[in-house]
Design brief:
Blueprint lengths: L4 E6 L4 E6 L7 H9 L7 E5 L5 H9 L4 E6 L2 H13 L6 E5 L14 E6 L15 H7 L6 H11 E12 L3 H10 L2 E10 L8 E8 L6 E2 L3 E2 L11 H9 L3
Parallel strand pairs: 3-4, 3-6, 4-5, 6-7, 8-10, 8-11
Antiparallel strand pairs: 1-2, 7-9, 8-9
Helix pairs in contact: 1-2
């Protein structure tokens, strides 16, 4: 496996992240999920499939009272996440471990977290060939755990009324709604992401509450680029990048 890494600056050089040069690399989608998360004071958060730790580390930088855990099935990712927490000055509030989401009951107490976040693998194993690069394959394809496993892990880990934040392609929308309801995680807040004007939505952001009552807010569409050619961010996305960190 190619484990060569490089370092990327982010949010006007206010933070830095080591990533593998080949494999899954975080981008706008990861940031938009992070921005969608709501944190309330001294809460405890866990990121399922944390990769190099971008989501919890950004949230730790934004919320100084938050504590966070990241789990990932690849030990290489966990080591990068710990390194990234250190270089961004949040290692005292962050921990990470190598763990399959199907095994969270072996390592965590039930109802131990206020917030669960995940940008899980989304390609079902029977659909398409497996990516040649293992780092990319584990990030995108359900090789070791499927969507229901991630949602079951969130149900187990969350306190009653705890919040689960999820990013997925729209092709998995019906699956997600069905499985969340099945696991007593009620969808409460939804936003579809459009790559540019005139295109169909390709992703969605969803907040679900454990034990929540029925009723959902569908937020206005979020369009990422002003047009499909120049790749210039819309004013809304540009503002999110500029104002995310205090």
């Amino acid at each position: 496996m190619d484990r060569e890494v490089d370092i990327s600056t982010f949010l006007s050089e206010r933070c830095r992240f080591y990533q593998f040069k080949r494999g899954f690399r975080f981008g706008t989608d990861t940031f938009l999920l992070t921005d969608f998360v709501r944190v309330k004071g001294k809460e405890k958060l866990i990121d399922l499939g944390t990769g190099c730790g971008v989501i919890p580390i950004l949230l730790l930088l934004k919320y100084p009272e938050l504590r966070a855990v990241g789990i990932d099935i690849l030990s290489e990712n966990v080591q990068l996440a710990l390194k990234n927490a250190e270089i961004n000055g949040v290692s005292d509030r962050f921990s990470a471990l190598t763990l399959n989401v199907k095994d969270v009951k072996k390592h965590f107490k039930p109802s131990d977290f206020d917030v669960v976040v995940s940008n899980p693998p989304f390609i079902e194993t029977e659909r398409g060939s497996i990516a040649e690069n293992p780092l990319r394959a584990y990030a995108r394809q359900e090789l070791c755990a499927n969507l229901e496993d991630f949602i079951e892990a969130a149900r187990y880990l969350l306190k009653n009324r705890g919040r689960f934040y999820l990013l997925l392609p729209v092709q998995r929308f019906v699956d997600a709604i069905f499985l969340l309801r099945k696991k007593d995680l009620e969808p409460k807040r939804l936003r579809f992401i459009y790559p540019c004007p005139g295109r169909s939505a390709n992703l969605f952001l969803l907040e679900a509450i454990k034990g929540g009552g029925k009723g959902i807010i569908v937020e206005p569409p979020l369009t990422v680029y002003r047009d499909c050619f120049s790749r210039v961010y819309t004013d809304e996305v540009d503002e999110k990048y500029r104002t995310f960190l205090p």
